[in-house]
Design brief:
The complex is a heterodimer of chains A (410) and B (373). With 410 residues, chain A is α+β, with helices and mostly antiparallel strands. Chain A is built from 11 helices and 10 strands. Chain A has helices at residues 9-25, 37-56, 75-87, 98-110, 113-124, 246-257, 268-279, 291-319, 327-350, 367-377, 385-396; strands at residues 130-133, 149-153, 156-166, 174-180, 191-197, 203-208, 224-235, 239-240, 281-282, 285-286. Chain A has a 4-stranded mixed sheet with strand order 1-4-5-8. A 4-stranded antiparallel sheet of chain A has the order 2-3-7-6, with no helix packed on it. Chain A has a two-stranded antiparallel sheet with strand order 9-10. Chain B has 3 domains: 7-115, Butyryl-Coa Dehydrogenase, subunit A, domain 1 (Orthogonal Bundle); 121-223, Butyryl-CoA Dehydrogenase, subunit A, domain 2 (Beta Barrel), CATH 2.40.110.10; 227-370, Butyryl-CoA Dehydrogenase, subunit A, domain 3 (Up-down Bundle). In chain B, the strands form 3 sheets. Chain B has a 4-stranded mixed sheet with strand order 1-4-5-8, covered by helices on one side. The chains are: A alpha+beta (410), B alpha+beta (373). The A-B interface holds A 1-6, 274, 277-278, 288, 294-295, 297-299, 301-302, 305-306, 309-310, 312-313, 316, 320, 322, 326, 330, 333-334, 389-390, 392-393, 396-401 and B 1-5, 69, 256, 259-260, 267-273, 275-277, 279-280, 283-284, 287-288, 291-292, 294-295, 297-299, 312, 315-316, 361, 364-365, 367-368, 371, 373.
C-alpha cells in the first residue's frame, strides 16, 4: 500500500508551473470573509474571473475531457492542481458550482454527442455558473416524488413548479434540474433531467432565510433560494439522458453527491479549532492543556482522521477506477454525523465563545459560530444522513437477495 | 498512491484464509474457548511448517523478514477466527522485543528458535496495578552477584500457559523509563502460570517466587529495556490492530448473512432499518479500524514518523472491535449469545483486546502528546 502520491520530476515541474501561475493570478484577499453584501458580490466576481482564467487553461475542471473544454489531465496532474489550490484555501471550481460539477458528470455519461459539445464547454471554461435544482416542498428525501412538471409542447418543454434549497448567493447562469415529464406515469419512469438557461422568462428566484447552508465542501455563509417556474419554455434539446429515463441518470448525479469522488484536502475547521485551543487560555492555561479539553480534542481528531482516510480511500477508488459499493454514502454519512457531533464537542471545549460572532469575544471570523450552525444544517444537503444509511444498506445487500450497484461516475 | 495489496500479499491472504477456514473452523475455536487446548497446539505445529512464527524475524536470524504490512495481512486472517495461539505474543511482540532489547549474541541464540516455533515467547508487562505504561512496572528484582532474584506477579499476560519463555519487564532504576527485560524460562523453579477464568481470552497470571535469574538472561543492557520495549510496541501495536480488523470483518459478514437469512414478521430482518443501522454502525467501525491501521503500517514500513498514527490506530481498532461485536449482538439477538455460533468468541476477544497493551483513552492521550498539541 502507498498512502502518498509520489511525484515525478515532470510532476514537480507542473507543480512549479501551477504555483507560479496561481501566485500571478490569484488576487490577494480572495478567501476573505466579506465585510458587506457589496463586498460579497465583489468577491464573487473575483472568484468567477479566476474561474474563467483557470477554465482557459483547462484547470477549472482538470480531469474533464479536453475535447469538451476540460483539462484532459491525468490523475497525477489533477492531484497537484487540487493540492495547490487547496493550499490557498480554495477549491475547484473556486465558487459554488454544484450543477456544473454534478450536471457535467451526468451529461458525460448520459448526454448525446451534440449535448456534450453544446453544454460542457461553457461549464468547463468557467463561462457559466450552474445551480442544481432537485428538492421541492413535497419531495426531499423522496426525490422520485417531485411534482414540478416539464410537458412536451412541439419542439419544447414547458416547466411549471417550485424548487427549494437551491444554489447560493449572486445568482446562476444555468440550471440543472429534474422534473416530471410523464405525469401519471410509473414512479421512477416519469422523470427527466434538463440543463437550461437560468435567465428564461417565468423563472423567479427568492432567497430563503436559513440557519446556515451546511455546504458539504466548505462553510461559506451563503444563501439558499426558492425557485419558481411559471410556464417556462425550454428547447427539447435541453433534456438530457432520454425522456423519462431521469431516475437512471440520477444514479450518476447522486453517487457523486454522496461523496464517491473523495477528497484529499485538509480539514480546515479542525486546523483552526486546534490553533484556537492552543492560543486561547482559560484560568491562565491554554485550552489544549486542560485535560478534559485535550481528551475531547483527541476524540475530535480521531473522527477527522477517519473522515480524511475515508475521503482518501474514495479518492483512490475513483481515480484508480476500482469497483465501489457503499463507500460514497459512507463518507457522506460519517462527515454529516461528525459535523453534528462536533457542534456539541466544540461547545464543551470552548464554551459560549463558540456561539458569538463578536470580533472581541468570539472566534476569529466567527468560524466556530459558523460551525455551530452548519454542523446542524449539513445533516440534510445531498441526502440526509438517514438516506445515506438507506443507500449503504442497499449497496451492502442487507435484507435483499442482491446488492445494489453503485452509480456510474465518469 | 495505491491502496491495494501487492500480488504476494494477495497470495498470502488467500493461503491464510484457506488455512484458517480448514484448520480452525468455528466449532474448533469454540471448543478451544471451552478449554480444549488441542486446537492451539495443533495450529501452532502447522503454522511452524508455514514459517509464520518467524514472519517478522530478520532473515539473518532464520525468519522471513516480512514487512509489517505483510504480517498484518496474515494477522487479519487470523483475527477472522479469532484463531487462538501465541502468534502475536511470540511471533510479533516477543520477537520484536528480543530484537530491540537483546545483544547480538542473544539474538542469535534466541530468534532462530522463535522462528522455528521451538521457543514460544510472551511479554509480561502489566502488574496488579493494571497500568500499561512504564510507570506501572514496579517489579524490582534485587541483583545478588551475577543473578537477579525475581519475586512478584505479572497479570493479564497473553498466552501465559503456552509460552516456553517469559519476556519479563522489570524495574532496575528510579526514573520511569529505567526498565530492563529478563528472559525467564517457564519451567524455571518458582515460576507458575495459569489462565484467568471468566470473560477474557487466553490471558493469565504469572507468579515468580524466589526465581533465580542468571545475569546472562538480561536482554541487552540494564535500564535500556524500557526504550527497547517502546520500539517493539510501536511496531507490534498495528499488527495487533490488523487482528482486530479481521475480527470486525468476520462479525460484519456474520451480521450481513444473518440479516438476510433470519425471517421475522414474514421478512428477512435486514429489511428493517433499525437492523440495517446496526450493520452500518458495524461497517463504519470496521472501515475506520481498517484504514487507520493500514496507514500506520505504511508509515512504519516506509520509515515515516508514525507514533501518532500508531496510537490512533490502536485507539480506533480497540473501540471498533468492541463496538462491532455490540452491533453484531443487536443484529443476532438470541442466536448471537449461543457460544457454538461463534460470535461470542469474537465478543470475548474484543473485550480482552480492548484494554490489552493500552486502552483507547490511554492511546489517544499518547497520540495527543505525540502530536505536540
Amino acid at each position: 500500500m502507498d498512502f502518498e502520491v509520489t511525484y515525478s520530476e515532470a510532476q514537480q515541474g507542473f507543480r512549479r508551473e501551477v504555483r507560479a501561475w496561481l501566485d500571478a493570478n490569484v488576487p490577494p484577499g480572495l478567501t476573505r470573509v466579506p465585510s458587506s453584501p457589496a463586498d460579497s458580490l465583489a468577491r464573487y466576481r473575483e472568484l468567477r474571473a479566476l474561474g474563467r482564467k483557470l477554465g482557459d487553461r483547462g484547470w477549472l475542471y482538470p480531469r474533464a475531457p479536453s475535447q469538451y473544454g476540460g483539462g484532459g489531465l491525468d490523475v497525477d496532474h489533477c492531484i497537484i492542481l487540487e493540492e495547490e489550490v487547496d493550499r490557498l484555501g480554495l477549491s475547484l471550481p473556486p465558487y459554488y458550482d454544484s450543477g456544473g460539477r454534478l450536471g457535467s458528470a451526468t451529461i458525460l455519461v448520459w448526454g448525446t454527442e451534440a449535448q456534450k459539445r453544446a453544454m460542457l464547454p461553457p461549464i468547463y471554461r468557467g463561462e457559466v455558473r450552474t445551480w442544481q435544482l432537485l428538492t421541492e416542498p413535497g419531495a426531499g428525501s423522496d426525490l422520485a416524488g417531485v411534482t414540478t412538471t416539464a410537458i412536451r409542447d412541439g419542439d419544447a418543454y414547458v416547466i411549471n413548479g417550485q424548487k427549494i434549497f437551491v444554489g447560493s448567493d449572486h445568482g446562476a447562469d444555468r440550471i440543472w434540474m429534474i422534473a416530471v415529464t410523464s405525469p401519471g406515469g410509473q414512479r421512477h419512469e416519469n422523470l427527466s433531467w434538463f440543463m437550461i438557461d437560468a435567465a428564461l422568462p417565468g423563472i423567479t428566484v427568492q432567497p430563503m432565510e436559513l440557519l446556515g447552508t451546511g455546504g458539504e465542501g466548505g462553510t461559506d455563509p451563503v444563501t439558499k433560494n426558492t425557485v419558481f417556474f411559471d410556464q417556462v419554455r425550454v428547447p427539447a434539446f435541453t433534456l438530457v439522458g432520454g425522456e423519462n429515463h431521469g431516475w437512471k441518470a440520477a444514479t450518476t448525479h447522486l453517487e457523486l453527491e454522496h461523496g464517491a469522488g473523495g477528497r484529499i484536502g485538509r480539514h480546515r475547521v479542525w486546523d483552526r479549532l486546534l490553533a484556537y485551543c492552543q492560543q486561547t487560555k482559560r484560568d491562565g492555561v491554554p485550552l489544549a492543556q486542560h485535560p478534559d479539553t485535550r481528551d475531547l480534542l483527541a476524540d475530535a481528531y480521531v473522527k477527522t482522521e477517519v473522515m480524511r482516510l475515508f475521503g482518501l480511500r474514495n479518492f483512490w477508488l475513483t481515480y484508480a477506477r476500482q469497483p465501489r459499493s457503499y463507500e460514497g454514502p459512507q463518507l457522506s454519512y460519517y462527515r454529516k454525523l461528525t459535523g453534528l457531533w462536533m457542534t456539541g464537542a466544540i461547545l464543551e471545549m470552548v464554551g459560549p465563545a463558540a456561539l458569538t460572532t463578536d470580533p472581541t469575544w468570539g472566534s476569529p471570523d466567527g468560524f466556530l459560530e459558523l460551525q455551530q450552525r452548519n454542523g446542524i444544517v449539513a445533516v440534510h444537503p445531498g441526502g440526509t444522513a438517514d438516506i445515506q444509511r438507506v443507500t449503504m444498506a442497499r449497496r451492502i445487500g442487507i435484507g435483499r437477495t442482491s446488492r445494489e450497484a453503485a452509480g456510474t461516475v465518469h | 498512491m495505491d491502496l491495494s495489496l501487492t500480488e504476494p500479499q494477495e497470495l498470502l491472504r488467500g493461503a491464510a484464509r484457506t488455512f484458517v477456514e480448514r484448520e480452525a473452523p468455528t466449532h474448533a475455536i469454540v471448543a478451544a474457548h471451552r478449554g480444549d487446548a488441542t486446537l492451539a497446539a495443533d495450529l501452532w505445529r502447522k503454522a511452524i511448517a508455514l514459517g509464520w512464527p518467524g514472519i517478522l524475524v530478520p532473515a539473518g536470524y532464520g525468519g522471513s523478514e516480512s514487512s509489517l504490512t505483510d504480517a498484518a495481512v496474515l494477522f487479519e486472517e487470523l483475527g477472522r477466527g479469532p484463531v487462538p495461539g501465541p502468534f502475536f505474543s511470540s511471533g510479533v511482540l516477543g520477537a520484536l522485543t528480543v530484537l530491540e532489547a537483546a545483544t547480538e549474541a542473544q539474538r542469535r541464540a534466541i530468534l532462530p528458535r522463535v522462528a522455528r516455533g521451538e521457543v514460544v515467547l510472551t511479554v509480561a508487562i502489566t502488574e496488579p496495578n493494571a497500568s500499561w505504561g512504564s510507570p506501572g512496572v514496579t517489579l524490582t528484582p534485587p541483583r545478588v552477584g551475577d543473578r537477579f532474584r525475581l519475586d512478584g506477579t505479572k497479570l493479564f499476560v497473553a498466552d501465559a500457559t503456552a509460552a516456553t519463555h517469559f519476556v519479563v519487564v522489570v524495574r532496575t532504576g528510579e526514573v520511569a523509563g529505567d526498565l530492563s527485560v529478563l528472559l525467564v524460562e517457564a519451567t524455571a523453579p518458582g515460576v507458575r502460570s495459569r489462565l484467568l477464568p471468566g470473560f477474557l481470552s487466553w490471558q493469565g497470571e504469572v507468579t515468580f517466587e524466589g526465581v533465580d535469574v542468571p545475569a546472562a538472561a538480561l536482554l541487552g543492557r540494564e535500564n535500556q529495556g524500557g526504550a527497547a520495549l517502546e520500539r517493539a510496541l510501536l511496531r507490534a501495536w498495528p499488527v495487533l490492530c490488523a487482528f482486530m480488523v479481521g475480527g470486525c470483518q468476520a462479525v460484519f459478514e456474520m451480521s450481513v448473512a444473518h440479516s438476510r437469512q433470519r425471517v421475522q414478521f414474514g421478512v428477512p430482518i435486514g429489511k428493517f432499518q433499525r437492523v440495517q443501522d446496526h450493520v452500518i454502525r458495524l461497517v463504519n467501525h470496521l472501515d475506520a479500524a481498517r484504514w487507520t491501521t493500514a496507514e500506520a503500517l505504511w508509515k512504519l514500513d516506509t520509515g515515516r514518523p508514525a507514533i501518532d498514527a500508531v496510537h490512533l490506530a490502536k485507539a480506533v481498532s480497540s473501540e471498533a472491535y468492541l463496538e462491532a461485536c455490540n452491533a453484531a449482538h443487536e443484529v443476532h439477538a438470541g442466536q448471537g449469545s449461543l457460544t457454538e455460533y461463534g460470535l461470542v468468541a469474537h465478543t470475548q476477544m474484543s473485550r480482552t483486546l480492548f484494554p490489552y497493551l493500552g486502552d483507547p483513552r490511554w492511546h489517544k492521550r499518547r497520540m495527543a502528546d505525540a502530536l505536540s498539541w
